[in-house]
Amino acid sequence: MIIDKLIDRINELENPTVVGLDPRLEYVPSFITDKYYAKYGYTPKAVGKSLYKFNKYIIDEICDIVPAVKPQIAMYERYGIEGLKAYDKTCKYAAKKGLIVIGDIKRSDIASTAAAYCDGHIGKVKIGECEYSGFTHDFITLNPYLGSDSITPYLDACKNYEKGLVVLAKTSNPNSGEIQDLLVDGKTIYETVGSLIEKWGEELRGKYGYSSVGAVVGATHPEQAKKLREQMPHTFFLVPGYGAQGGKAEDLAVCFKDGIGAIVNSSRGIIAAHLKDEYRQSREEDFAKASRAAALAMKEDLRRCIER
After folding, report:
1. Is 75 a member of any domain?
2. Residue 90 forms part of a structural domain
3. Which of 18, 116, 197, 304 pairs with 144 at a CA distance of 20 to 30 A?
4. Mean per-residue pLDDT for 109-121?
5. pTM higher than the cut 0.70
């Protein structure tokens, strides 16, 4: 089970951190962008090359201290095909360096369209007598708003190809409660979704008791997270909202059970650490060392609050 591989790696490194590879052009040092602007002009191709190079530096610095990365596909799609090339290369390089890759794609659709998304992101397509994988993902994020028939097409791929899902339950954004906290027959929407996620993962539980169908549960809503942890004992949590969004280690401790059960995301807090005075490097070329320092600081902060 892919969830067992993730938990094994978390335990090995004693670090439940996933680094969000969500690069913005303003994060990329000029020594990288200048090189590609000179070669390709001010074009999407130059940007795509720059984003991949930026990610590569960071992956090289963090791959031995964090178990996973989570590239957000939107940050690449905005540059079209050249951006997606950078996304694809980033996922492949991260996997090559031993990292679990969580493709943050948040897809949601039904029937043949859901099946097509599934084939491209965690399944395979058959061309003639050959089979091909689209992207290099271990897990992908999904939006369950369309109901069970938007999720079930992915479950067979999880079984057949040892992949995983992370389904939105209670998200970290300030206005998530407009829908997710609504009461229907005395139960919130996020609690109803939580029950479905627990059910969807029943046949994909690994040796630690957790399923390869996980849930996104924001660090910025600790009371709701506590309810969901009690309600979803077999569901592994991906926890966004730490750091830049205001979530604290003390808040997200409720997502863990006996020291495991969750992995916490930080994006700009790590990949843009070189822009902060506390992590700024004397040489621009050493910018990724700031990401390593920030990741280690996050590790210590989390471990301080997680009981084992």
Report:
1. no
2. no
3. 18
4. 94
5. yes
Between 246 and 24, name the one with better pLDDT: 24
- Quick check: 308 pLDDT over 60? no
Q: What is the pLDDT of residues 237-291, one digit of tens each?
A: 999 988 766 678 888 999 998 889 999 999 999 999 999 989 888 899 999 999 9
- What is the pLDDT at residue 182? 95
Is 179 part of any domain?
Answer: yes
Which residue range forms the structural domain that includes residue 199? 2-15+101-305
How many domains is the chain built from?
1
Assigned domain for 74 exists: no
In three-state form (DSSP H/G/I as H, E/B as E, the rest C), the secondary structure along 128-158 is CCEEECCCCCCEEEECCCCCHHHCHHHHHHH
Average pLDDT, the chain: 95
* Residue numbers annotated as active site: 106
CATH number of the domain that residue 269 is part of: 3.20.20.70
